[in-house]
Each structure stands twice: as structure tokens, then as C-alpha cells.
Specification:
The chain is mostly beta strands. The chain has no helices and 11 strands. Helices cover 0% and strands 50% of the residues.
């Protein structure tokens, strides 16, 4: 059974940083691309970033380039999202999503339970 467990969310002041983690199990982690998706309160899902299975190809939503960095440690079966210079509009539930193949534009497959990020003073 595929399991994705996010952690690292919380309350942070504007301008602060957080690093989200997503631990994957139940599948061969290094065979699959991964992505982060977020859902702001009262809004729909927003795609954030994706990374290929090997970790050497990444892509970001245009509005987040330069502030967010996606990475992965395949030895630890863990996906990361480093978020810097956070803004109130980054407040959302962040979901880790396994894709159906090794490339970062593969279809979505399995979702984690999400972790809440709140940016507020």
C-alpha cells in the first residue's frame, strides 16, 4: 500500500521559512516522480512544483520560482519542499503527490494527507 506522510507544516511569520517533508513507503520511491500541490482556504487546488524520479529535473509554478525549492533524497525515500520568504497568500494545506511514472509531467497517482502551513503575524 502506498503511503505518503507529510510533515513540517506550522505557523510562520511573513518572510519566514519552512521545510516540508514527505516520507514515502509501499512503493519503489526512486522510480517515480513526485509533486507538491496546495489548497488555500476556500479555494481550489494549486500545483506547486514537481521533480523527476532521479531528482535532476524540477519545475515550479511561475509565481513561486525563486522562493520554493523542491528536492528529494531517494536513499531516505523522502521528498522535500523548502519554502522561503513566505507570504500570507502561501497559507494552504500542502499535499505530497506520487506521480504515475518517472517524469515530472506524469499523471497524479497517490496523495498524502496534507500538512497545514499558515503564514501570519
Amino acid at each position: 500500500e502506498v503511503q505518503l506522510v507529510e510533515s513540517g507544516g506550522g505557523l510562520v511569520q511573513p518572510g519566514g521559512s519552512l521545510r516540508l517533508s514527505c516520507a514515502g513507503s509501499g512503493f519503489t520511491f526512486n522510480n517515480f516522480a513526485m509533486t507538491w500541490v496546495r489548497q488555500p482556504p476556500g479555494k481550489g487546488l494549486e500545483w506547486v512544483s514537481a521533480i523527476n524520479s532521479g531528482g535532476d529535473s524540477t519545475t515550479y509554478a511561475d509565481s513561486l520560482k525563486g522562493r520554493f525549492t523542491i528536492s528529494r533524497d531517494n536513499a531516505k525515500n523522502t521528498l522535500y519542499l523548502q519554502m522561503n520568504r513566505l507570504k500570507p497568500e502561501d497559507t494552504a494545506v500542502y499535499y505530497c503527490v506520487k506521480l504515475q511514472g518517472p517524469v515530472r509531467d506524469a499523471d497524479f497517482d497517490s496523495w498524502g494527507q496534507g500538512t497545514q502551513v499558515t503564514v501570519s503575524s
